[in-house]
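Q: I'm writing a short explainer about enoyl-CoA hydratase for a general audience and would like to include a description of its predicted shape. Could you first generate the structure from this sequence?
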Amino acid sequence: MAYDNIEVTRDGAVATIQLDRPKALNALNVAMMSELATALAKLEADDTVGCVILTGHDKAFAAGADIKEMMEDEYLDLYKNDRFEQFHMATERFRKPIIAAVSGYALGGGCELAMMCDIIIAADTAKFGQPEINLGVMPGMGGTQRLLRAVGKSKAMDLCLTGRMMDAAEAERAGLVSRIVPLDKLMETAKEAAAKIASQSQPIAMMTKETINAGFEMSLEQGIRLERRTFMSMFTTHDQKEGMAAFAEKRKPHFKNR
Ligand code: CAA
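A: Of course. Here's the predicted structure. Afterward I'll give you a sentence or two in plain language.
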């Protein structure tokens, strides 16, 4: 399917979605958010896809929600469309691992979109921020909540209240980003990580993602109980038998995703 605001490519079991409105620094307009939701639903349904990379362009991963598109909106326009909610649900519901490969600006909704992904790999040029306060609003796609959980209260307050940007090194120190690489190695690194993830047992990777994400919503005791039960349930799968047999026989496992 052809899209106007994103590009979807495939390399084996890895799918890459590139946000593609470079002249607007990949500002997230309604059309792009809707295309992204559609693309994710298709990739979710495609069993041959094991991992997804979400990326932008060198200058911007995404510079936020499209300010010009929403500037005249009233409360009821936003309430009735609820564009952020639909988009948020599509990303949130996506059950396969998704890596954000970020270079340049990841601001406002762009930072929030990166945080909806499971792993953020950043180029050394990346800049993260929640500058909405400069526009007379605050983050509206999960920024106050996800940033708080990712970097703690003091830095989340600092970023959301001053509107300043943090560079890749600060983002890595704060725990927002898993790795920093030179810009020219960004996609290579993201693809290597994605291919490694896609080579694992898909249902096991999905259950691992689900269990880690559930930890944001529950107590430590509940989370550990969920982990234990999910771990036990993996012993009903072919891939657990195969993975452990391959280790004992000193060979590579051949996972069948079941
Ligand atoms: N919405 C709409 N258009 C945007 C945009 C955005 N978020 N960010 C950049 N653009 C457009 C600019 O208007 C400009 O378009 P024109 O050429 O037609 O004038 C083009 O992209 C290039 O941008 P700049 O000329 O501003 O580029 P720069 O290099 O001088 O500055 C920047 C880069 C610092 C990222 C600056 O563009 C900027 O501050 N952008 C806005 C960042 C922002 O406030 N994001 C939050 C948006 S609100 C939000 O996201 C709410 C939410 O939580 C859901």
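A: For your explainer, you could say: The chain has a mean pLDDT of 96.
Q: Perfect, that's easy to follow.
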